[in-house]
Design goal:
Elements lengths: L1 E6 L19 H7 L3 E7 L3 H11 L3 E2 L2 H7 L4 E4 L6 H11 L4 E4 L7 H13 L4 E3 L7 H11 L6 E7 L3 H16 L4 E4 L3 E3 L4 E3 L2 E5 L2 E7 L9 E5 L3 E5 L5 E10 L4 E13 L5 H13 L7 E2 H16 L3
Parallel strand pairs: 1-2, 1-4, 2-3, 4-5, 5-6, 7-12
Antiparallel strand pairs: 6-17, 7-13, 8-11, 9-10, 11-12, 13-14, 14-15, 15-16
Helix pairs in contact: 3-4, 4-5, 5-9, 6-7, 7-9
């Protein structure tokens, strides 16, 4: 059993309630479900949140990082704080404990310089740092990747509708498609601009991969949780409809009527998205890492590639 310390209990740290069955979207609840991990304590500057964690999960409360690392010996530290605090928190961790594995929220740093500092300090301390781009750890994503790998020469033209900014929302899909298609070879900025309201920037842009071109479309007419993507290949189509519990894989077959390929609804294969367990799936992959098995996680190196794309979008020519 591996011991875990959680730093930060806001948002994804604690938000889903233990009383809601079969929903594992926070660090606290997902770890409480695990038989491999044991949370030995938590740190949060807001006492009310720490007390709630203690009430729900019986987590030991530490006043600060120094006290937590002096009085406990975690194998993994989960950082669920505001992005601007990630590097400073990791820097403080290594004051009191060397060679400790870290799991922090995306994007892994508030900018490329910040993320590079995290990468550097973790390397110097011979520590692994994972970043919580959880979509690449979903079982559905692993199935889609296999389908794409089995059809490597089939070129993809896709589209994504996203909300809430490129860093906050589109970054999840940039990272996912890097996982599915590899390196981004070219970027075209259509109309991206900064947004003081979001403390981010948004707009339409194109990403080109070796075997894919994905068009990202910004929409401020939908709610924060809106997400939809479609991947069109020559032989098939992958579709994630917003709000659905599954991803569609639709084969294209020849039609004698129009002498062309058509999409036939009766041929739809549905892959369970398992979105209610997305954080649980991530910890399942981290468990594989500790056991020396194959795992699919985004580490700081992979998150840097996503950060590089994000920063290039902001300066790319339309």
């Amino acid at each position: 059993m591996k011991k875990v310390l959680i730093i930060g209990l806001g948002n994804i740290g604690l938000y889903d309630d233990i009383r809601k069955k079969n929903i594992y979207t926070s660090h606290a609840k997902s770890l409480s479900k695990s038989t491999f991990f044991k949370v030995i304590g938590c740190v949060d500057v807001i006492k009310k949140r720490a007390l709630k964690a203690n009430d729900l999960y019986d987590f030991r409360i530490f006043k600060n990082i120094k006290e937590a690392l002096k009085k406990s010996s975690p194998d993994l530290i989960v950082i669920s704080l505001k992005t601007k605090l990630h590097y400073l928190t990791i820097k403080e961790i290594f004051k009191y404990k060397k060679k400790i594995d870290i799991f922090c929220e995306k994007p892994g740093g508030q900018n490329l310089v910040d993320a590079l500092k995290i990468q550097d300090i973790c390397r110097k301390n011979k520590s692994k740092c994972f970043v919580n781009y959880q979509r690449r750890s979903l079982k559905s994503s692993l199935k889609i990747k296999k389908i794409i790998n089995d059809n490597k020469k089939d070129y993809c033209k896709g589209s994504v509708i996203y909300t809430s900014g490129i860093k906050n929302s589109a970054s999840h899909y940039i990272n996912l498609f890097q996982f599915l298609f590899g390196r981004v070879k070219k970027i075209k900025n259509i109309d991206c601009k900064s947004s003081t309201k979001l403390n981010d920037f948004n707009g339409d842009f194109l990403l080109y991969f070796k075997h894919a071109m994905i068009y990202f479309i910004y929409s401020n007419k939908h709610t924060f949780n809106y997400a939809h993507y479609t991947l069109n290949f020559n032989k098939f189509k992958i579709n994630y409809p917003n709000g659905k519990k599954y991803i569609e894989v639709i084969k294209k077959i020849n039609s004698n009527l129009f002498n062309r390929k058509l999409l036939i609804d009766s041929k739809i294969k549905k892959i369970d998205l398992d979105i209610k367990n997305y954080q649980l799936n991530v910890y399942s992959q981290i468990e594989n890492y500790f056991k020396g098995k194959h795992y699919e996680l985004c580490d700081i190196d992979a998150s840097l590639k996503t950060m590089e794309v994000i920063e290039k979008i902001s300066v790319a020519k339309s």
